[in-house]
Amino acid sequence: xxxxxxxxxxxxLNLKKNNIVVIPTETVYGLGANALSKKAxxxxxxxxxxxxxDPLICHTNxxxxxxxxxxxxxxxxxxxxxxxxxxxxxxxxxKKNIIPDITTxxxxxxxxxxxxxxxxxxLLEKLxxxxxxxxxxxxxxxxxxxxNHVLQNFDDGIDYILDDGNCSVGIESTIIGFKKTQTIVxxxxxxxxxxxxxxxxxxDYNFSNKNSLPGSFKNHYSPTKKLFVGNxxxxxxxxxxxxxxxxxxxxxxxxxxxxxxxxxxxxxxLKEASKNLYSSLYLLDNMDIDIIIxxxxxxxxxxxxxNDRIIKSSEKY
Length: 317
Ligand code: TXA
Ligand code: MG
Fold this sequence. Notes:
CATH architecture of the largest domain: Alpha-Beta Complex
CATH topology of the largest domain: DHBP synthase
CATH class of the largest domain: Alpha Beta
Bound molecules: threonylcarbamoyladenylate, magnesium ion
């Protein structure tokens, strides 16, 4: 049994002992450890079965604290901080030596974000080190948006879980970095690129498949059941010998049993769909079905980020 609750002192105590503490954030739950401790970070990689060349994001509660760990804070980062932090944005900075190489997989940059969750912000306030936290799932599996999801991934190795119910946003943070005058987006997330561009101008993208770049691993966000993306009716016909579950955007399909379908948003709200995406995948993955089928959502705003996750978790990818 993993100890779960809202006890901040217990969370602090465990993190100080280089133990693993699960933290709630507005995006997904994080598997947290002291980002400055090689020992703690090593434990994290092992527990999650994460390859050592996939760097971690660090979490703290103010830009002043971030400045202790990075060489400089670019003006664009200050502007984004004013508007979007605390929030679902991760910024890559040039790291100081105090951040161990294991945390950043030997990269010279470190990702920081200030998460928008009341309890976790209180926890971070009490700490004199950042929390390194990947999503609290086994490497490659669906990201968790509530404690039950975390418990489906781990039955051991976690020293405390801070419980704050369901994540309000439900999709990971957007990751950006700066190169000379350029702003580069490395991972689409819940803060839309449009909102970022309004503040600091045009951005470029880098979703290359090289190691150590976000999203570079093929088996991301995947349920154990095979997930197929495309035209729902065609997929139903193609797989008519299988027991099918459907992840629907705004309505169920008449050809499949009602109980084997989950609707992301009855009102076609992309925000609601993002909040429900991972929990719906967990529900479907736990059903007595052979495969899951789904379709892409409107490819705009946060819909782009949802589609990115659907494609990465699917068989086509
Ligand atoms: O919303 C989120 O970002 C959640 C919550 C817990 O904060 N965290 C999260 O962490 O999604 P994780 O480890 O599941 O994904 C972090 C991604 C990885 O794909 C990693 O490659 C990338 O961030 N990353 C971290 N540091 C990086 C760096 N210095 N350069 C390039 N990519 C980096
Ligand atoms: Mg993850």
